[in-house]
Design a protein that fits this description.
Length: 352
């Protein structure tokens, strides 16, 4: 009798266990098959040596015949607004040889393979992964809209404490910080998928790790209903220390993407487990939204762990995860607003 109505959360717990096991078992650091392809390597070496691909020249391999130094990367000759791409002879030869080899494989009925650790995705204008960049930008917009509506709700629609004009909702500041970190993460996600360079990759991974780490703090504080500052500091301090150490390791010691994926997976699964258990035992009016977001999170972790190959040159498993993040972000901020309304109403009722 006590489990009645809790079927979805309990089923979700089982799915989470399965997903985390497969995610941690996935070999994300395996060598790329495309790198070892002799035809690809021959194309790449020929392109670098001659600056041409079949009958077409690769402009980034042709240094202009002017007074500029010959050893200067081609992107340094471009306008400033284009130099951020850092496309040069090496990157252009990689891309064009990869696309040519994938076209040959497709004609032979073979599936795509990874090159230099990444799936072969087509460019569009200056965007290296146009679909992922667009979806990241849309999620950023949804995050901003959700945070703005949350801010307006608390500041102008819900009652404020008469003595301090602060909100009655005890987690207002936590959600504001969460919003800033979320928007920062999605901003760098959009930049990284527009232009994959060493510095954009580090900023993308670092901002994502910071956001996930803080989200773990938020879920622990909210589901445990911790309100005093001492308890919050005791929870936040070790998590902040771990996440900060992890970010410093990625930026200044080794950019280990395999390790980063495992760390982010463990943090994400821990969050989903806590929210799912909380939704199973609470009577919160918005608990179903939490369950739906958790289900979406499970699917995202599954797709990221299994690294679904691309289709049509633009859509891969990561792009599907980014598409799922748009409605999930909307649902999440809807839950945050309803949680603020519920907690404010409960506090006002006690004061009467």
């Amino acid at each position: 009798m006590g489990l009645r109505g809790r079927g979805p959360p309990l089923l979700l717990l089982l799915l989470l266990g399965l997903v985390v096991a497969t995610a941690l078992a996935a070999d994300s650091a395996s060598a790329s098959e495309g790198d070892a392809d002799p035809l690809y390597r021959a194309c790449f070496e020929e392109c670098q040596r001659t600056g041409t691909l079949k009958e077409d020249s690769v402009k980034h391999c042709i240094v202009p015949t002017d007074d500029q130094p010959a050893d200067k990367a081609w992107y340094a000759h471009e306008p400033l607004y284009l130099q951020w791409k850092e496309w040069n002879c090496n990157s252009e030869c990689r891309y064009h040889c990869m696309m040519e080899r994938e076209q040959e494989r497709e004609e032979l009925g073979l599936g795509p393979v990874k090159y230099h650790g990444k799936w072969p995705l087509k460019r569009a204008s200056v965007f290296q992964e146009p679909l992922s960049a667009a979806l990241s930008a849309l999620t950023l917009l949804v995050q901003f809209n959700g945070w703005l509506s949350f801010f307006l709700l608390l500041s102008y629609k819900l009652p404020l404490r008469p003595e301090t004009h602060a909100t009655y909702y005890e987690y207002t500041g936590l959600w504001h910080i969460n919003a800033l970190l979320a928007m920062n993460s999605w901003f760098w996600c959009a930049i990284y998928h527009s232009c994959d360079t060493a510095w954009t990759e580090k900023l993308y991974l670092s901002s994502a790790a910071a956001f996930l780490g803080y989200s773990l703090i938020l879920v622990i504080l909210r589901t445990s209903n911790l309100r005093d500052e001492a308890s919050r500091v005791m929870v936040a301090a070790p998590i902040l220390a771990f996440v900060t150490t992890h970010i410093l390791y990625l930026n200044f010691y080794e950019l280990d993407k395999g390790l980063n994926m495992k760390v982010c997976t463990v943090i994400s699964v821990a969050q989903l487990l806590l929210w799912t258990v909380w939704a199973a035992i609470t009577r919160h009016p918005s608990r179903l939204k939490v369950v739906f977001v958790a289900i979406g999170g499970v699917l995202s972790i599954y797709l990221e762990a299994h690294d679904v190959p691309p289709r049509w040159g633009y859509v891969d498993g990561h792009a599907i995860c980014l598409a799922m993040a748009i409605p999930l972000s909307y649902l999440w901020w809807s839950f945050a607003k309803e949680d603020a309304e519920m907690r404010t109403a409960a506090i006002m009722k006690k004061k009467r």
